[in-house]
């Protein structure tokens, strides 16, 4: 492995043009990930036709690098402006933005930079050492029943995040789950709750909903404060987290690497579930659950470690089996095909040079996050000095573009503003925005896998529970739920 | 003919100092696991290899049925980029064919095409958006047979043969049933059917089985004709669907060959049934449904490009020429060959497309009524 890695490194840095492609990917991914309204997918779609003029290794490497740095880039806007660059950065906003409001933006961004790099590098190392056996294990042992069980396990802690009471937390999650059912059902393709509108048959897209619940509702909240005379601008602070602050969260980092990697390795799941599960596990194991959603450093650390840990893992099913884990890895398939290659087992035998250039590039791209991220952060934090009356319209404009650009539907802009208004009202009443978003995103993934899983076991729960991983996760989820209910009953008088 | 593709093949072939068959067998050894020995096998391996090497470009270039190499732009149209609405995501079959066709049209005419992906609702979101776009010829649509089946089920939905003008259908393909190559419980269609019957409805097949979809209709034909019950598991994305078969989560897979080519090349999957009236050359050792005693007309997957019926006639004529001629471009032919879209005739001009769509609508409507579905 080391020899191959060194060969890949030599190929990567032995040719000036290849170095140029690498640097372009690193900077482009960070930039497009960080600018609200566009994402790494936008950059990838623009670049796709041009990869035909690159060598296969350069083309695939470029996309892999964009994937690594773009996943991190979205964290910046999530933390500073409550605008997650992509769904996988949404949990970062749960605690990152409250930290900004408390004058701790530097700590949040610094933690995001460092943990993205750690998660990504760790993931790249595992990817390099065991791609083929891990891919085989994942597809042999993880099917729809296990993925549903994983989602259930993740949702079981969702009520603890951000709500004024556990009951309000649960109601928020349930609202998210209901919203997730809008659109065609995942099995029969039957329209639900679309009220005759064709566009609604496609369901509520994640990005407009997230932009509405986070960015737009936040602007309404701040505007209300301004009108009421209680507004205070976020304190400007560029202090990074200290070594000891980060060391105190070492267990959260390791746990998120495992969680992120496990989610990333599942075909068709990718970094979004990883980030939510990483965050959820941080909440589950914390002694101070009530602090999450209110500006806890561990929330940022867990989310950003997990989503970048998923990047290397998502390459495993793609390269070993030809199974893309998400939209960007699906585009990588197109890059392969443009060069008459198909990702899959034969790539390891037919194009080992390509594989190791890609592996090496992902490793160095994650290291680049650390160095470039720390340098750019000092500059980006100055954006917080822009007065609210200028910043708010800019955010609204960029969020509107971001909502529209994904599918080019006016409906998505409407959804964003409706989510913003609903989010604003619910936040006033103590309901949890993170809970709604968790319900929405995990609900869609969970429902589909539950339906597929039930079909696979012929609607026989005994067969369902004969799958050990599935049983362990569901039992653990039920125990968490019972504990949550117990807490709710006993804590209710003091909380209300 | 694309010499940059063909020449390396010959250089490689002759530098190996071997016969063509010897060379092909050496280079594409993985297919030995998939196909049985014999002359037909060698021929099919050869055909596949030729397709992979771009040789199919030559054969298909001869099929170009638009003799006119250039056409004057009517009153300067188009004087700016076209917009192509694609009702599916960029990574799937529609996204890829849209990209390949857009590239080919641009190569031919120097007119850029911006692709606007509007996925969701089994293609209905993109279709609705297209029908609302200006019918000025600057907006074109990519769509698949889902538009025909949707109209068959609900006649208020746009009829692709009436409300739209097909510019070209550029991909026509058939479906197959796949199993894992290392499967030990069954090895071919008869043993698969026997095994499925013994499971009493508990066997599973991965599919895209939305209500009324081509996949579900064909599976109904197959299960009825074979007197077997099989649980269809619906996966809307390719990766989990193929992963389910690879990992043994399901017993078989219903798919089109171009979408699983890498698994066929790698020797992971093996086709055991072709749903087509005759054996395509590449799959000459895979029986057809008719040979296995199933007497139904196969429904085909087809992807094509359309313009609104109200677009100006002279612009429509130019667009027809551009898209039909672009089909013959080397880049497009290479793309189609890479997707097994050259093993049956993938080309339909406007008249051929209308005939195909009308036939599909009629057939879907009959089947839906037979299935007891609410045909409007």
Describe the protein:
- The complex is a heterodimer of chains A (496) and B (376).
- Chain A is mainly α.
- Chain A has one domain (2-490).
- Chain A is 73% helix and 1% strand.
- Chain A has helices at 2-13, 16-34, 40-47, 56-81, 90-101, 105-141, 144-155, 166-180, 206-228, 243-247, 250-264, 271-285, 297-321, 327-338, 345-350, 352-380, 388-405, 410-428, 433-456, 461-464, 468-495, and strands spanning 183-184, 191-192.
- Chain A has a two-stranded antiparallel sheet.
- Chain B has 3 domains: 3-61, no CATH class; 74-173 and 302-370, D-Maltodextrin-Binding Protein, domain 2 (3-Layer(aba) Sandwich), CATH 3.40.190.150; 175-283, 3-Layer(aba) Sandwich (D-Maltodextrin-Binding Protein, domain 2).
- Helices cover 42% and strands 16% of the residues of chain B.
- In chain B, the strands form 2 sheets. Chain B has a 5-stranded mixed β-sheet with strand order 2-1-3-10-4, with helices on both faces. Chain B has a 5-stranded mixed β-sheet with strand order 7-6-8-5-9, sandwiched between helices.
- In chain B, helix 2 (20-27) packs across helix 3 and helix 5 crosses helix 12 (313-326).
- The model of chain B is unreliable at 1-62 (pLDDT under 50).
- Chains A and B meet through helix 6, strand 1, helix 14 and helix 19 of A and helix 5, helix 6, strand 7, helix 10 and helix 11 of B.
**Approximate helicity band of chain A:** over 70%
Measured on Cα atoms, how large is the radius of gyration of chain B?
21 Å
Order of H and E elements of chain A: HHHHHHHHEEHHHHHHHHHHHHH
Strand content of chain A: under 5%
- Averaged pLDDT of chain A: 82
User: What's the tally of helices of chain B?
Assistant: 14
Tell me the helix content of chain B.
40-55%
Order of helices and strands of chain B: HHHHEHEHEHEEHEHEHEHEEHHH
Number of strands of chain B: 10
Tell me the domain tally of chain A. 1
Taking all Cα atoms into account, the compactness measure Rg of chain A is: 22 Å
User: Remind me, CATH topology of the largest domain in chain B?
Assistant: D-Maltodextrin-Binding Protein, domain 2
Quick check: average pLDDT of chain B? 80
Question: Biggest sheet of chain B, strands in spatial order?
Answer: 2-1-3-10-4
Tally the structural domains of chain B: 3
User: What is the subunit arrangement here?
Assistant: heterodimer
Q: Major sheet of chain B: size, sense and barrel closure? A: 5 strands, mixed
């Amino acid at each position: 492995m080391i020899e191959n890695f060194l060969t890949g490194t030599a190929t990567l840095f032995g040719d000036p043009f290849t170095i140029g492609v690498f640097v372009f990917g690193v900077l482009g991914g960070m930039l497009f990930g960080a600018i609200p309204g566009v994402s790494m997918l936008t950059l990838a779609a623009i670049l796709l036709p041009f990869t035909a003029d690159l060598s296969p290794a350069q083309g695939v490497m470029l996309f892999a690098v964009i994937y690594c740095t773009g996943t991190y880039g979205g964290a910046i806007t999530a933390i500073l402006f409550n605008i997650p660059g992509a769904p996988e950065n949404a949990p970062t906003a749960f605690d990152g933005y409250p930290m900004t409001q408390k004058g701790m933006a530097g700590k949040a961004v610094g933690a995001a930079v460092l943990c993205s790099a750690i998660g990504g590098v760790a993931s790249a190392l595992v990817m390099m050492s065991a791609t083929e056996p891990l891919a085989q294990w994942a597809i042999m042992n993880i099917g729809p029943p296990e993925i549903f069980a994983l989602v259930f396990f993740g949702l079981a802690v969702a009520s603890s995040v951000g709500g004024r009471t556990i009951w309000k937390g649960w109601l928020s999650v349930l609202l998210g789950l209901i919203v997730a059912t809008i659109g065609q059902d995942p099995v029969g393709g039957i329209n639900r709750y679309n009220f005759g509108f064709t566009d609604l048959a496609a369901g509520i897209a994640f990005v407009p909903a997230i932009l509405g619940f986070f960015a737009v509702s936040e602007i309404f909240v701040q505007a209300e404060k301004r009108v009421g005379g209680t507004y205070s601008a976020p304190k400007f602070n560029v202090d990074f987290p200290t070594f000891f602050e980060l060391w105190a969260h070492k267990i959260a980092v390791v746990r998120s690497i495992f969680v992120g990697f496990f989610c990333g390795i599942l075909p068709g799941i990718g970094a979004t579930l990883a980030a939510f599960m990483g965050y959820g596990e941080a909440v589950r194991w914390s002694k101070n659950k009530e602090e999450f959603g209110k500006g806890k450093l561990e929330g940022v650390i867990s989310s950003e470690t997990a989503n970048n840990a998923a990047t290397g893992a998502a390459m495993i099913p793609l390269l070993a089996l030809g199974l893309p884990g998400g939209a960007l890895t699906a585009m990588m398939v197109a890059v392969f095909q443009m060069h008459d290659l198909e990702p899959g087992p034969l790539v390891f035998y037919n194009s080992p040079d390509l594989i190791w250039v890609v592996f090496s590039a992902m490793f160095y791209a994650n290291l680049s996050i650390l160095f470039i991220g720390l340098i750019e952060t000092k500059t980006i934090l100055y954006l917080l000095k822009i007065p609210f009356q200028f910043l708010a319209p800019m955010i609204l404009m960029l969020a509107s573009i971001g909502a529209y650009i994904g599918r080019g539907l006016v409906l998505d802009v409407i959804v964003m503003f409706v989510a913003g208004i609903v989010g604003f009202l619910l936040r006033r009443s103590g309901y949890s925005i993170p809970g709604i978003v968790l319900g929405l995103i995990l609900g869609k993934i969970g429902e589909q896998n539950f339906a597929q899983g039930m079909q696979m076991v012929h609607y026989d729960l005994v067969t369902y529970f004969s799958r050990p991983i599935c049983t362990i996760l569901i039992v653990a989820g039920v125990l968490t739920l019972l504990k949550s209910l117990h807490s709710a009953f006993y804590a209710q008088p003091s909380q209300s | 003919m694309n010499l940059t593709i063909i020449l390396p093949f010959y250089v490689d072939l002759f530098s190996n100092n071997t016969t063509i068959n010897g060379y092909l067998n050496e280079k594409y050894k993985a297919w030995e696991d998939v196909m049985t020995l014999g002359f037909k096998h060698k021929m099919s391996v050869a055909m596949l290899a030729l397709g992979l090497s771009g040789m199919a470009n030559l054969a298909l270039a001869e099929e170009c049925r638009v003799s006119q190499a250039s056409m004057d732009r009517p009153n300067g149209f188009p004087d700016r980029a076209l917009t192509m609405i694609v009702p599916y995501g960029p990574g799937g079959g529609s996204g890829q064919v849209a990209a390949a066709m857009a590239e080919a049209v641009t190569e031919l005419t120097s007119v850029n095409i911006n692709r606007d992906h509007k996925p969701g609702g089994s293609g209905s979101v993109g279709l609705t958006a297209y029908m609302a776009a200006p019918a000025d010829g600057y907006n074109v649509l990519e769509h698949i047979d889902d538009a025909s089946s949707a109209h068959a089920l609900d006649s208020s939905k746009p009829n692709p043969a009436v409300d739209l003008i097909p510019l070209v259908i550029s991909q026509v393909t058939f479906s197959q049933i796949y199993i894992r190559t290392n499967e030990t419980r069954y090895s071919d269609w008869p043993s698969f059917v026997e095994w499925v019957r013994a499971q009493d409805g508990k066997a599973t097949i991965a599919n895209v089985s939305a209500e009324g979809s081509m996949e579900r209709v064909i599976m109904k034909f197959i299960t009825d004709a074979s007197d077997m019950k099989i649980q269809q598991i619906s996966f809307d994305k390719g990766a989990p669907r193929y992963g389910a078969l690879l990992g043994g989560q399901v017993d078989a897979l219903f798919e089109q060959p171009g979408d699983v080519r890498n698994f066929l090349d790698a020797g992971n999957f093996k086709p055991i049934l072709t749903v087509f009236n005759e054996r395509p050359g590449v799959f000459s050792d895979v029986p057809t449904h008719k040979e296995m005693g199933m007497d139904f007309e196969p429904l085909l997957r087809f992807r094509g490009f359309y313009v609104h019926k109200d677009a100006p006639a002279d612009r429509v004529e130019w667009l027809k020429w551009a898209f039909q001629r672009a089909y013959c471009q080397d880049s497009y032919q290479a793309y189609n060959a890479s997707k097994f879209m050259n093993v049956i005739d993938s080309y339909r001009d406007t008249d051929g497309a209308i005939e195909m769509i009308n036939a599909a609508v009629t057939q879907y409507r009959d089947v839906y009524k037979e299935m007891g579905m609410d045909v409007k």
